[in-house]
Amino acid sequence: QRHGGVRLTGGGFVGAYDAIPSIVAAYGMRCLRIAYTGGLLRLRRSSDNAESDFGYTGEGNLDTAAIVTWLGAASGYVTTWYDQSGNGYNAAQTTAAAQPLYVASGQNGKPVIRWQGTNDVLTAGDVLDLGSSNMSHVSVAKIGGNSQSIFSKYTSTEAAAGRWGLYRFDAEGGLEALYTNNVGSVRTTGAYSSTAVNLFSVVLERSAGAQKLYLNGAEHGTSSFVAESTNYNTAHAFNIGLHSPGLWLVGDIAEIVIANTAWSNPQRQAVEAAANNYWAIY
Fold first, then answer.
1. Which of 181, 217, 275, 277 has the fewest CB atoms within 10 Å of its CB?
2. Residue 265 phi/psi, 5° resolution?
3. How confident is the model at residue 176 (pLDDT cuts 50, 70, 90)?
4. How far is it, in rounded angstroms, from Cα 50 to Cα 39?
């Protein structure tokens, strides 16, 4: 097993996304790739504000037993969610009041991170160039209300102009996936539950001029892709749990995987199966 990012002996597993190409960022409450050798997350203990890294067991699961021992009766708040891609896009929050909550049993009896809708956000660097790449991503998450997102990208001066890859439970009761701000977006009004964890996936293929949104393994909408303005090509912070300034997520996130390629249908289906097999979503 492993704890605190140090590999120990015993156990073995196959990473859920080992065969998935071109992953540029990966965040999970389990080990997602066998090549990853770091911790999964860093927690702050509410009782004394001490911090500690936690890794995974020999089966690839988050070492929840170590977390229970370390926390005792205290609550745990996430200060860093480590990027397992090897690219160093760790998502962090140094302000205690803005750190999301660690929840020991959130989906299928497994731990999740909970955003409580006030000011919780984890922020990383510029995960993906908006101006040149195809893109695919999958998220295991619950979005609890209107204008809320699993993740977004923006700068303070451009406000929400750099949003991409977000999913929104909007006033019409549907979902939206954006490549940039209202450019190449998919808006749907199909059945969607804001009280359950769902599996969201998106594939953007520039050569085909299309972006497709999938919900729990089924196609949920397609949009034509339109070339974005040049300002979207600049660096933007990657914000987990924030739609745009002042709009915070109320919900849980268990996994986010982002690639700079357009997954084929078999590749996307393999990603969705890897997530659903573990989290039992549908």
1. 277
2. -55, -45
3. confident
4. 17
